[in-house]
Amino acid sequence: MALFIMILRKMINNKWLELSLLFGLVLSVALASTMPIYTNAILQRLLIKELQQLQTTSSQYPGIYWLSATMAPEDQKKNEKISETDVFLNKASKSFGIPVQQLVRERSTQRYGLTPAEPDKVDVNRQRSADLSAIDGMEEHIRLLDGRLPEKEPVNGVYEALVVKEALTELGMVINTVFTIQDEKLKQPVYIKPVGVFDRKDYEDLFWYNISSSYKNSFLIDFNLFEKEFTAGSKLNLQSSYWYLALDYSQMSLASTNTFIDAHRTITTHMDQRYETHNMNAPALQTLAAYYVKETNLRLMLWSLNVPVMLMLAFYLYMVANLITDRQKTEIAVLRSRGASRLQIILSYVMEGLVLGAIAFLIGPYFGALLTKLLGASSGFLEFVQRAKLEVEVNRDAFLYGLIAVASSLVMTLIPVFLAMRVTIVGQKQQSARQEKKSFWHTYFIDVVLIGVALYGLNNYKTRIKELLSLGLKSGDLKVDPLLFLIPALFILGMGLLILRIYPWIMRLVFQLGRRWWPPSLYSTFIQVSRSTIQYQFIMVFLIITIATGLFSASATRTINKNTADKILYSAGADITMQIRWENDAPPAILTGLLEDSEEEESSSAAGSEAPIKTQYTEPSFLPFTQLNGVEHAAKVFNKKDATYLHGKTTEKIQLMGIESKQFGETAWLRDRLLDHHFNDYLNLIARNPSAVLISKSMAEEYSLKAGDTLTLGWEGVEGAQFTVYGVIDYWPSWNPNPGFNDTLTTTTKTGTTTKVNKPKLVIGQLPYIQNNLALEPYEVWLKLKPGASSQTVYQAIVDHGYEIESLRDANQEQIKSIKDPFQMAINGVMTLGFLISIFICFFGFLLYWVLSLFARTLQFGIFRAMGISLYQLIWMLAGEQILVSGAAIVIGILTGNVASHLFVPLFELSFDPKTQVPPFEVTFDPRDQVRLYWIITVMISIGLGVLGSFVSRIRIHQAVKLGED
Hints:
Layout: H1 2-13, H2 15-58, E1 64-70, H3 78-92, E2 100-109, E3 112-116, E4 129-135, E5 142-147, E6 158-164, H4 165-170, E7 179-181, E8 190-200, E9 218-220, H5 223-232, E10 238-247, H6 254-274, E11 277-281, H7 284-305, H8 307-327, H9 329-337, H10 342-376, E12 378-380, E13 383-384, H11 396-421, H12 425-433, H13 440-443, H14 446-471, H15 483-513, H16 520-531, H17 533-572, E14 576-580, E15 583-584, H18 589-606, E16 617-618, H19 623-626, E17 631-647, E18 650-659, H20 661-667, H21 679-687, E19 692-696, H22 697-703, E20 710-715, E21 718-729, E22 744-749, E23 752-757, E24 762-766, H23 767-773, E25 780-785, H24 791-800, E26 805-810, H25 811-819, H26 822-856, H27 858-866, H28 871-904, H29 927-953, H30 957-965
């Protein structure tokens, strides 16, 4: 207890240092806890959205869990098995971890032949077959269309049933018609009579798994009657039993996914043990299975994104702990000389760390939850938007991560204590009187090692990029390698330390160059800084890492966001592209297959006798598109992907695009500097001649074409027309020049078999010329929206004009969707959060370091004042120190950040599929990001100088001199 009180007193005596250490610990715990909190929050949001999307695309409720069991006629334990499953599922349904909205049982016999018992009412020559079924509790979920509800017991030996309206047509009957079920295996005939026609009471009712028409060959009787007569009584062969659960998927969380899957495995085991043939349908299972992979990848991503900030926090904690230890080195040395063991001293610091760690452990996760909400609002580097807030929950994993952070931080804070305990009281006095020559990282060349590791990783990644670009990838998804963030962090740290190694030499050179002219105040500043470079290295490393990491983060985030957005815009071609339905004389789609079959049968006799039938189209009015509210420009774009180019005696497949030059140039999007000349120059070039075309570079190289050559183009069923080549292009809006996966062409000659890449080929011509000389066929409508225009307003306006949209692509909506991708949000949010934390840490470290430095130099400043140095000159001396220390660190940080960005940001090309990443990957720097960064740093330095100036102004000469006497 006495030891604990002594530790508390010592902490109170160093309260500002201890509070600074506590601040770092809280931030460390908060940052660590954001990983599980953010992962769970973002995956929770994505889980519900994907399940909702599943319902939209499949028209099936995602909470369905449906089971069926088919039983053989000779199975004597049907009743026992079904009863066991009923009881089991009633209990198992509660183990899914989410509310059960419906639990429905359904039974069905095998299908039997039906014979009318009253031949005068129906056609006796018609073949009929049906089964008897029963659904537990269906009476509360139906409405009668005709007739009445059946009795719950046989009436004069006849079972009364309900049927759907489709059954009346399928079985050729009317209600109140008695049918006889006869089978050679039945002991006696069974009579069934439909007495009512029903439909669902509510088509959104989750009670129903099947649609009504699926019961068109079924008679549905009372469930309890079915159980008594057929399940237990075996009057008819019970063939199938169904169990259907409707689960409230909106209440599903990542925590309940494990219980959901465990419940599914338990149910599957139960079914396997009892039924040879059984089936299951649970749409959510496939979605849930993918979440384990996503969760692992996202956690790994968050760890890698936070590496630079973790390094910053570790550095901060070490620096503060080192400052505390420096002030207590004499005390430690005295305790060692008085017989205190190293263990006793260490335990006192461990207890001090545990007190602070316990506070940080209790506060940190909740602060991490607040930071997670900040992550959810980030749409780019230092950019925030109003969006639905993340459902943040502080869970057990958050505290577990926090505990790991506390333990790691405690180890960092104990390192200076271990180093201080190795020195005796005599050694400590000797060290305080001597100047340290080199820092630890410079002594052991840590800077060189870090740069070497980073450059080795850079070389490996560049080699990998070349291989991937030559071989091609299959996936186009964003997959960011975590090492892409770790290696630049190592390079930034190593580069900063390397420059600090040579910085003292630069200082000496500057000092010598102006030695004759420096005023006394500046002369003293140079002497102070040049003799204390080791002392200033901590704060300089702080600033270097903060500035460099901020610049790299800004560039990396901006590059990933910009290339993702450009890829979407280029692929679409314009803000909105759509295909409008044209009236035509083509046969209905349902007859197309029949017509094709008949054409194939007659092809041998009629081959070459007649040309293929050409579909005639009626072009809808295009003018309304140019007048839509919110539309700035509109263009007609004809795309024929299976056009042909007559090359000698052979025809080659190409893509033909027909445009109107002026409208296309106003509407389409293309990144600058993709072509040799400006995009509009090419459009003006072909506008002069109606038959002028542009061709792709792949086509020019393949067929040795050049400007002035004539082409014959057409497509199946259309006679070709002559075109003249006016130019060659590499890229064009919506056209991907890269070959797809397995796009190869194999040719066999006398010399052997060769395989070459079959590159896409494109021809761009004038739409009026194509329509007049080839054919009038449907074209796409491309729209460029006005700034701030709503896509939904445009859609509605198109529908109001009577157009029928066959296909549509909205680039703006796709960009919004990409921003909401969990990995994209992680990059934007974590980099922003990491930088803001770095700024706060750097500011507190900066302020703390300089305040303690001034405290230690109070005597020196007092003597300066006593010698006649004015307050104004003293402040200028401090400003000079700031320029030589903080200013130099900022410059080094800017240089290091820019070098790291130019070297390592291009590696993010690995995150994109080169086959689909068109336009090519481009590193982006936004001046606004750098301006924001510089403003933040300027404000931080200004506040720091203000605090230091205020402190210096309060120094009293007599106090300083008295301090020197003491």
